[in-house]
Every structure is written in C-alpha cells, then in structure tokens.
Please model this.
Amino acid sequence: MRVLAVDDDPQALKYIRDILSQSGYAPIVTGDPEDVLRLMEEERPHLVLLDLMLPETDGIELMKDILDKADMPVIFLSAYGREELIARAFDMGAVDYVVKPFSPTELAARIRAALRRQAASEPSEPYTFGELTIDYANRSVTLAGRSVQLVAMEYRMLAELSANAGRVLTYEHLLDRLWREKTNDDVRPMRTIVSKLRRKLGDDSGNPTYIFTEARIGYRMPKGRR
Model:
C-alpha cells in the first residue's frame, strides 16, 4: 500500500520514509505542501501522514483540501500536543494524531490501525444494481461498464447511500457522516451533491432508478446484489 508523507524537515522525512519501507509500505514523500495535491492525483495513496506545521500552510487546511480530493485516512504528526489542536484536527477529519517524537513501532501500529478501520467501514463486496456498480475496494464507479468520474464528496455520498441500501438515511445522518464542518442543518449543499450525482448516473429525480428522495426525511438507494 502507498503512504504519502508530508514534512518540511528533511531528517524527519527520511526517518518516516525508512519506517514506511521497513513496514512494507510504498513511501511517497515530499517536503513541499504545494506538491501534495499533484501527488494525490498521480500516486493515489491509501493513507496520508501530514505534519501539522508546514511553511506558509496550515496543515489542517491542507488536510481539508486532501479530503476534498479523496476519502482516505489522514494521520497528523506533530511536536505540538496541545489538546485544542488535537481536537481541531479530529473535528476536521483526521483519524489519528501522533505526537513527535515517536518510535517506528508506534507509527507502524497507528498506520495499520487506521487502514484496518478504513477497510472495516466499507462493504467487502461491490454494490450492483441495474447498470450501476460501485467497487468500494478500488473506490470506482461504473455505469453500463463505463467509468463515472466523481469528486470526493459525490463518491462519499454514493458510498454511504449504497452501503446502507434499502434504508432511508435521514438528512441529519448524512450531515453528521459526510460533512466535517457544521452546516447548521443546511441541507442545500447535500441536495446539490445529490443533483450532480443524478446527472452523472442519468437518474431522473421524478422517476428515479438509483437515488430516491423521501420527502422531508432523506434519501435511499434500492438493495443491490452484493
């Protein structure tokens, strides 16, 4: 599995790279925050290790950009162990926060745990209904055999609905699960995401095949063949 490590300290980056290699991961490393989104696109890592304090960049803001690109575990590495920073990191979507200095054993264990939780949170078999297939392992969506290109939030919405196929997911549930920042119960961004999904899936909101609206409650997808 590929792990992207971002740290502007060359010695720390070498230390992390060696830990990743010795633990059986394929390390992708950079000290330049501006490289991160390009590397995300080109290398498609399975997990990101992110230093909190980066030059001219707020690590938490960079994490938000990462999670807008792909739904994956982000672990913060930082010499700052203040509770308010740790709480903010978790509130914004981090899955773990490791305070420097750390041992190779600790970091490797934290990575394994994060990847296990990620795998456990997704169905083991693809969702198939009609011409739609969602491959959770590869995070890919196809319609009649053709790839459907989704941005991260669109994929998260589709994955959440399909993983709970047959159940109505309330607006409150979806806001809590998918939106890292509080939206004051504003469902308009959610409706925009669903509208974009329907267009990409060729789904008619008036006579839907894949995503059904339950008025004033939420959304559901039909049970598929797993």
